[in-house]
Amino acid sequence: MNYEKRILSLFKNGYLTAKEVTKNGIPRFYLTKLLKENKIERISRGIYIKKDEIPDEFIILQSKSKNSVYSHETALYLHGFSERIPINYDLTVNSGYNGSLQKMPNVNLFYTKKELVNLGIIDYKLSSGNFIKVYNLEKTICDIIKHKKKIDAEIYNKAIRKYFYSKNKNTIKLYDYAKKMHIYDKVRAIFEIFA
Hints:
Layout lengths: L2 H8 L4 E3 H6 L5 H8 L3 E5 L2 E4 L6 H7 L5 E2 L1 H7 L10 E6 L12 E6 L8 E5 L5 E5 L1 H10 L6 H13 L5 H10 L3 H11 L1
Parallel strand pairs: 5-6
Antiparallel strand pairs: 1-3, 2-3, 4-5, 7-8
């Protein structure tokens, strides 16, 4: 099998990284050759799709920073706690982040301490079969409470109410995250209203 066919066979769910090509002992020159032949397309640094694939914005944006995590209203949408399809994507990065996501017009960046950026991360499977990093529901609820002024009021109120009445809620985890994020009293006060 020639290098070009091998590269095309390496695509998983329509995507391929340059790292994967190198890992398989294929010179990156052949990626460039496939690009010039219009058989693949570069969607981000080191990430490629087959020409007939439709790029997924979730994958493209997260590929720009390996430490970014979908959060806030975007995470609510992914968890089924908001019906509003994201036009702008909410991503959380650590405080010292300085990268290309800051220049993206369709990205709302939230910054957090380095020790909290990995709190509550899950791998979320998209319909394409690809995975992205998203905060779990409890971390997302803590985030929207912490940044209430930056969240659409209707989305905020519906999400809080839906979480309170959800059979899948984990209040122990919610309060644990709230303590770590220094918003325990605020979270407790909000949920005491419903009790």
